[in-house]
Structure of Gliding motility-associated ABC transporter ATP-binding subunit GldA:
Amino acid sequence: MSIEVNNISKSYGAQKALDAVSFSIQKGEIVGFLGPNGAGKSTLMKILTTYLLADDGSAVVNGHDVTANTKAVQLSIGYLPEHNPLYLDLYIREYLAFNADVYKVDKSRIEEVIQLTGLSPESHKKISQLSKGYRQRVGLANALLHNPDVLILDEPTTGLDPNQLMEIRNVIKNVGKDKTVFLSTHIMQEVEAICDRVIIIDKGKIVADKKLDNLISAHKEQVIEVEFDYKIEEQAIAAIPHLKSFKNIHDCLWELTFLSDKDMRPAVFDFAHDNGLKTLQLNQKNKNLEAVFREITK
Ligand code: ADP
Ligand code: MG
């Protein structure tokens, strides 16, 4: 196991931020830690990275207990905190050199992490001159300096524009090939794009822990977009079995939402045939993970 969390609880004064949280992550997994703001994601990450002490429970990272063995834990993990604290006045290489000294890492590693995180084109700049996306890369490069086995990334893509977001996700996927990655986000699509597994937390409690495929199929919603050759009445559409809801996108184009384990495309095709319609297009759209997330955390 790369990360083991057993019954961790943590309160800030009267407020319970984590309530008996348990899970484990195997070596090499990329796990998304998903939850609305205030759910307790950062609190748990701070406990795993030894910045905070839990009130109750235990956690082991890379075989080391987070309370008994803080130094070994710190050497095992690369941590990108939520607001990515950087020294803005330093040049990228200066900043990385400073941290390489802290970690007693050979300076040759600096060029490696610059390469790994795609910083090369900007690597001559001061951190204050960088865009948010490049600042995140510096944070990641820093987290990778001592070549840790485990990466803990707290909302690494929050606040990035869509291009930067894609790029950082690719960097994470790439560096995650030979590491365990535990990353928090409140964006379901992010989990879908990068992760093998998702752990969902809400109000300090784990509410789901599933392989991504299982999570989608456990929630049976199925959306089918269909275009017929003629306009038809809503009443006719409403008669299709297992239909949960429908939307007329325009004239002959409909979005049908079913609740069923079965692939409903044949049923839609048969419906058209029985009603003397031709099916011009029929697409099963991706099941909406955003809806799954809302359902679980509502
Ligand atoms: P998330 O990262 O999922 O947004 P956090 O772990 O930051 O959630 O916060 C969990 C809860 O604990 C929130 O209600 C938050 O307001 C509270 N909290 C976090 N840090 C502190 C703190 N230092 N003092 C008091 N309350 C805090
Ligand atoms: Mg947070």
